[in-house]
Amino acid sequence: MNVYAIKAIYIFEMARTWRTLLQSIAAPVISTSLYFIVFGAAIGSRMVEIDGISYGAFIVPGLIMLSLLSESISNASFGIYMPKFSGTIYEILSAPISPFETIAGYVGAAATKSIILGLLMLVTARLFVDFTIVHPLWMIGFLVLTSVTFSLFGFILGIWADGFEKLQLVPMLIVTPLTFLGGSFYSIDMLPPFWRTITLFNPVVYLISGFRWSFYGVSDVSVGISLSMTLAFMALCLATVWWIFKTGYRLKA
Amino acid sequence: MQPIISVSKLSKTYAGGFLALKNIDLKIHCGEIFALLGPNGAGKTTLISIICGIVTPSTGIVLADGHDIVRDYRAARSKIGLVPQELSTDLWETVWDTVSFSRGLFGKPPNPAYIEKVLRDLSLWNKKDAEIMTLSGGMKRRVMIAKALSHEPQILFLDEPTAGVDVELRQGMWEMVRSLRASGVTIILTTHYIEEAEEMADRIGVISKGELILVEDKTILMEKLGKKQLTLHLQSPLESIPAELAGYPLELSADGNELVYTFDVQHEHTGIASLLRRLGERGIDFKDLQTNQSSLEEIFVSLVRARP
Question: In chain A, whose CA is at the least distance from the CA of B12?
């Protein structure tokens, strides 16, 4: 195992985060705080409780998940896309590093950033609304699992993208709408039966539902299904990454 | 002696169908400076990229210090350092950080003393905390070399190391390459500057249209393929070459003041003595003479042009 290589990539990627602190950490925290102010404090105070939870508290897991998904994807995709764009990828390809070590460095750093961000948002949310965490270990577990899984997805996206536009395309046109429609701001039980069935095809529903369960012990779908769906998506991402390294897709001529 | 790089039956066809390398066989000896020459698009960078792991070979086997570059890639790649043609660096990193990063990538534990030595040797020590974007082109080139040397490789590939570099820096690079060789590093360089190969290389390989058309010791190559010319500056101009000298490969300059004799340095009898005797007998005096040997560039051009 080339531990020094994993460490080198990880430190390099984390250094990029500290260099761009405002963009990497502060911006998502500020924008999520605005959500809490508008939907939690201002509008939330006039909304009815959902499953016995105040609206402000209800949206906390969904909003954290919203940022977690987009930041995990953005961090990991940018992390691997930039060396491709600048040409420094030659160094990674010519170094004695296995695909696992490469992934551990890039995805590990991207997931770390997302977890830090998620925890910061949790603290920020506490400033605006009261909430409890019934299953703190599960909450951490979902936080880590989601960050790693979507960082893997971001890594795949970064390999696939051959321009900055494509890098933004999937998060903007697919991930953000799915997150908004995945129950961030409402319980899917509030939807008419037809749309509830359609919503169940949205994988983000399972992430938000499981995460919300770790906070309040209530969920739209069973926590076991949430966990299985997340693990299944992670397995799919791992299989895709394995294929990328095996074939050299968009990495090697 | 076992070669440090062994390339057997190596071919590369890119996805679009372009055949970049055709059945290459090559052995690089330990401790030598090997220059790979060829026109643009000949396959030099493809060959280097395959050996370094950046491009996947279509067929063939490459061993680096006895390790297969595909099956035993960790051992093979850890022996190799690469300075690519393009100045590809992370512009916001400091010199120290980027060189330390490269060392880590190749699985080496931190060694500040060694990194300091590399930076001092490359006259980069006073720039160690500078961001790469603030450096000149020549300094960036040296940073690339420092990165390639950071993990103490036994084999160093220099792809066009002095492209776009001023004369003074080029001389400095040549000095550095020589000192690396003296420390036991095997160096393979590609270059467009033939005088660079002439100046530094022990052996020359010429690649054209994906084929390795020649590999030869530099001095032998120049002796074998090089031609020498004797130019005689005459006391009085001649109108034409005298008939009794017709057996000699002579050329008369347009003004009739210079007689040029081309001879083969490999031949046992160059014919110079008999020519000078004949000229003396004919009363053709000369006030000066000089000899010229064809350069590696002339040999290279003739080799590449000779290919269909």
Answer: A253
Task: Convert the pLDDT of each residue in B123-148 to its tens digit.
Answer: 889 999 999 999 988 888 889 999 99
Q: C-alpha distances in angstroms, B150 versus A96, B95, B160?
A: 14, 12, 19
Any CB–CB contact under 8 A between A160 and chain B? Answer: no
The residue ranges of every structural domain in chain B are 5-223, 228-293
Q: Render pLDDT for B158-215 as a digit per residue (tens, 0 to 9).
A: 988 877 677 777 787 888 888 889 988 999 998 877 777 888 889 989 888 899 988 9
pLDDT digits (tens, 9 = 90+) for A113-122: 999 999 988 8
Residues 220-249 of A with CB under 8 A from B: 248
Predicted pLDDT of residue B154: 94
Nearest CA in chain B to A93: B54
Q: Where are the domains of chain A?
A: 3-247
Which residue in A86, A97, A248 is closest to B88 by CB distance? A86
CB proximity A95 to B under 8 Å: yes
State the average pLDDT over residues B75-104: 91
Residue in chain B nearest A95 by alpha carbon: B106
Using the predicted structure, report yes or no on whether residue B97 has a pLDDT greater than 90: yes
B135 to chain A, closest Cα gap in Å = 17
Q: What is the CATH number of domain B228-293?
A: 3.30.70
Contact A253 B55 (CB under 8 A): yes
CATH topology of domain B5-223: Rossmann fold (3.40.50)
